[in-house]
Amino acid sequence: MRVLVLRPERAARRTADALRGLGHTPVLAPVLAITDLSNPIPDGPFDAVLATSANGLRKLAVRREIERLRSAPLIAVGDRTAEAGCEAGFVAVHVAEGDGRALVAEALRLFPSPARFLHAAGADRAFDLAGALSFHGHRVDLVELYKAEAAATLPPAIAEALAAPEDLAVLHHSGRIAETFLALVDGAGLGEVARAVPHAALAERIARALRDAGCRRVETAERPDEQALLKTLDRLDANGSPSAFRRTK
């Protein structure tokens, strides 16, 4: 199966490697690009650093403040973010399996009494981590270290892939990616064919947005991590065929 990978370039390359290992053919077509933000990092001390993405930790790692932050525990969502934390020099790394809600649960387990956290984050967030933790008496200092900028025009690789939509699927790692993809294909007059191919979504909120936008075949990962997302391709492959794709164009 050919698979459109829409996430930013560095992450897209990792996804492409995983897809090749599963026998799929990745088509890299990032619709978002990561850019740095120069927001100041508040003075500590902090009881822990929170990270919901590897990008946040990579941006934190090149800031001079990292020297005073490495001694604090890191609570990270997923193995990939935890690996980025280890690369940044954090020694005590706790992994929350799932999403931002799982991170909240892990933080509450480790810090039952009110604590102060630093959240190394991006400008676009699907979950209000600070709000959830402040409800339990914790303080969260949020620092936005990067933002994802949407492509202004449809990447040529997407148009080329949709010109022959048989045996094609689309991966959506975030709601922003799904929203940007649909806006770009609509702007290029390819909205109908894009909605007819199968889509794989990292979370139900992303899948729901795709369905609401008219996408006809959407599968949702059983867990909000990439390994589970890639497994949805097996379900898409088992539930369809090239002839079925042609009928829904």
Automatic annotation (TrEMBL):
SUPFAM superfamilies: HemD-like
Superkingdom of this protein's organism: Bacteria
InterPro entries reported in the protein's UniProt record: 4pyrrol_syn_uPrphyn_synt_sf, 4pyrrol_synth_uPrphyn_synth
Cited Gene3D superfamilies: 3.40.50.10090
Domain Tetrapyrrole biosynthesis uroporphyrinogen III synthase span(s) in chain numbering: 15-230
Protein name stated in the entry: Uroporphyrinogen-III synthase
Organism: Chelatococcus sambhunathii
Phylogenetic placement of the source organism: Bacteria, Pseudomonadati, Pseudomonadota, Alphaproteobacteria, Hyphomicrobiales
